[in-house]
What does this fold into?
Amino acid sequence: MPQYKHFPLPDTAEGLTDAEILAWHVQPGDEVKVNQIIVEIETAKAAVELPCPWAGVVTELHVSPGQTVDVGTPIITIDVDPTGAAAPDPPSPAPTRSEQNADDDSPGTLVGYGPRTASAKRRPRKGAAVPAGRSAEFAQQAVQTAAERAPDATPMPAGEPEIAAAPRPAATAQQTAPPTAEPASNGAGVYVPLAKPPVRKLAKELGVDLRAIEGSGPSGVITRDDVHRAATGPAAEPAAAASYDAASREHRVAIRGVRKATAAAMVGSAFTAPHVTEFLTVDVTPMMELRARLKESPGFRGVKITPLAFAAKAVCLAVRRTPDVNARWDEAAGEIVYKDYVHLGIAAATPRGLVVPKVRDADAMSLRELASALEELAATARDGKTAPGDMVGGTITITNVGVFGVDTGTPIINPGESAILALGAIRDMPWVVNGQIVPRKVCQLALSFDHRVIDGQQGSQFLADVGALLADPAVAITY
It folds into this structure.
């Protein structure tokens, strides 16, 4: 007999409660192997590829791409015994989160998988899966209730039923086509218009029937403008403005994933830690000359030596003299926590937004090791493959705005840290050397720090030390 197992969305990092399904790599009817990548998800920290904990045949995908689901929600069903009876029984309904926790066959043996010890109480999310197996009478009653409360109901994603009226049969290989964006229904043929709660409220106030409106938003979503047009009816507009429609030249993107997490973190930091920013202009000609020599050195062959690598080494060395910049303010405990290690964060721009992966124990690395680590970190971040665990626990951060041709800026401190250094572009500029104006390689540095932890003297000392190490790398032997 077939044996069906339901794979729940795992907790991929500490503190995460949900994730968005980005793309499925398998479809119903596909045969999968243990540890084969089956789905790509996006959490608040990064995009993550999930492997399959079992071998078998995919029978059903419970969540469509673009939907956000809670940790512990079943997302796929696998038949781990596809060679069973010729006429397989339909898969049992996907278990609830508590039932999954009690299942001895749950994929708890894989790293990063397994049920959480305590489930957070959350209100149901939009598009959340509803267990199948309800009686026809109950389904019909739910349909009537949904129809009565339609103006205030939470909209469903396109193509997803709001209520499953009966158990679905076992999936076959023909059920491989992804869902299309069609008007949502509640599973019993009742049309559910796509509109956000504020738009539904507006329609109710104006007496507009959303079911009679064709949405102009993405995937047919009804907007406020659609409701207003339906309420006022067709009206003549001035000829000069007849061809102008601002909405047709705009597009909206939902705030979620990395962008949502970054925004929350930056707002929290900006309005919690009292920021102070200091600036320093440095002649880095000796550093650039050393870089040119190292590129020809056999010991650095195959390694990309960048100004960022020199800045990273300078920060690690300067921390020794000013450990306060590597500490953090613990409001709850009423303490300042000093770190005896440097987990160096590097702000990286990616297609999904700003991420700050860490170089662990950067203070214990040589310049060559730092350069290699930074090159690998950048490549992983650009591909969106940075593991969630690699973006937490930093102690101090560098943001290299110089790669964009920017001279400097006033960076915002990452939460849980006390300082961030901005490395500006290196430019040929006139500089006074021994009383003579000569062209030199010049760079601007900016240091933002938490004034609760770091006094002006300490921040200035640290910035001066970093500048001195970049202006004359030989100073490093004095540290």
Observations:
- The longest strand covers residues 436-450.
